[in-house]
Write a structure and sequence with these properties.
Elements lengths: L11 H11 L6 E8 L5 E7 L5 E5 L12 H10 L10 E5 L9 E5 L19 H18 L16 H14 L9 H10 L8 E3 L8 E3 L7 E4 L6 E3 L2 H10 L10 H4 L11 H12 L6 H24 L6 H21 L5
Antiparallel strand pairs: 1-2, 2-3, 3-5, 4-5, 6-9, 7-8
Keywords: Transferase
GO molecular function, one term: protein kinase activity
Protein name: Putative aminoglycoside phosphotransferase
Length: 348
């Protein structure tokens, strides 16, 4: 049923009977295919006798921290997003019994679409299509910030009070658990973030890792986002951190990003919006003040550097076989260097 190297796959001897008993609506599992180990949760596609396949997400073999890779949080927020303008996969089943496959896991529908990375499908290259997709991309998190999270059942999902107050210490604390090398500029960025922290507006839902790699665009016109994936880092707090995540990674013509080789350079495509244009559109749709976006951009790259260093540590200690994790050897220092440049006003 599974493909070679069975130790990397869920044990079908316990998984299939469990699903037959507790998730019969997905059909009987006929095949299991590993899609990717990801930079975080591992992802498998289950082919069943139902028309559509199902996605199984489970934490990696070695977890970075007690709070990382939380599929239960992902399940809860996906359920909460029902009947909202935010496109997302349907949450189908949550298993917290680790005796089934050795880890908790989430079942969800398979979202259809493509990642915005070359080569692009023909309809994405039509006049104005790329720009329209990117504006829809930013509008999705603007709509997300407006979701009534209390009415959606997310009371207690996060700790919105003092959210920004905790950020620098949280990520430095997580980094300390696996740090093995010096990261030039890290202390300077941390000090700048503490000194320039703005007041937060009303709390909202945060995706936590909103980028092209975690978004699928529709396979047919009109240009639009078809599904937002990977909600494991979601919480309730200052939703401008999602805007900072997008803009921090957004490169304009003539700029380079340490993630371009993997992330792609769609943001430099002719007609792509600038960071300033995206910020304005976000402000228009969300109704939020984006005047401190430089802080949120620097915070995003600082956080990403701290998290990615954990994946690099998993690589050098044998806990990950993902090729990208090896590249974090040089990507993480460049992320911190870019954050440092933003704090010095060297990037608009």
């Amino acid at each position: 049923m599974t493909e070679p190297d069975l130790r990397r796959y869920p044990d079908e001897r316990t998984l299939v009977p469990y699903l037959d008993r507790h998730a019969a609506s997905i059909g009987t599992v006929r095949a299991i295919r590993r899609i990717t180990s990801g930079s975080s949760n591992e992802i498998f596609e289950l082919t069943t006798d139902a028309p559509e396949p199902v996605i199984l997400r489970t934490p990696p073999r070695r977890r970075l921290s007690a709070s990382a890779h939380d599929v239960a949080r992902e399940f809860r927020v996906l359920r909460a997003l029902s009947d909202t303008p935010v496109p997302h996969p349907d949450a189908l089943h949550l298993c917290t019994d680790e005796s089934v496959i050795g880890r908790p896991f989430l079942l969800m529908s398979k979202a259809k679409g493509f990642h915005l990375k070359a080569p692009y499908p023909a309809h994405a290259l039509a006049e104005g299509a790329m720009r329209a997709m990117m504006y829809d991309f930013i509008e999705v998190i603007a709509h997300l910030s407006r979701v009534d999270w209390r009415s959606a059942g997310l009371t207690g999902f996060g700790r919105p009070d003092g959210y920004l107050d905790r950020q620098v210490d949280r990520w430095l604390g997580q980094l300390a658990g696996y740090r093995t090398r010096e990261l030039p500029g890290l202390d300077e960025v941390a000090a700048w973030l503490r000194a320039h922290q703005p007041a937060s507006g009303p709390p909202g839902i945060i995706h936590g890792d909103y980028q092209f790699l975690n978004v699928l665009f529709a396979d047919d016109p009109p240009p639009r986002v078809a599904g937002v994936l990977d909600w494991e880092q979601s919480t309730v707090g200052d939703p401008l951190v999602d805007l900072g995540w997008v803009l921090g990674l957004w490169t304009e013509p003539g700029e380079e990003s340490p993630l371009n080789a993997f992330y792609g350079n769609a943001s430099q495509h002719p007609g792509a919006p600038t960071r300033a244009e995206l910020a304005r559109r976000y402000a228009e749709v969300s109704g939020r003040d984006v005047g401190h976006r430089r802080y949120y951009e620097a915070l995003a790259l600082f956080k990403l550097g701290c998290i990615a260093e954990g994946s690099y540590h998993r690589h050098i200690t044998g806990g990950s076989d993902t090729a990208l994790h090896a590249d974090f050897a040089w990507i993480v220092p460049k992320l911190i260097a870019t954050a440092h440049a933003i704090t010095r006003g060297e990037r608009d």
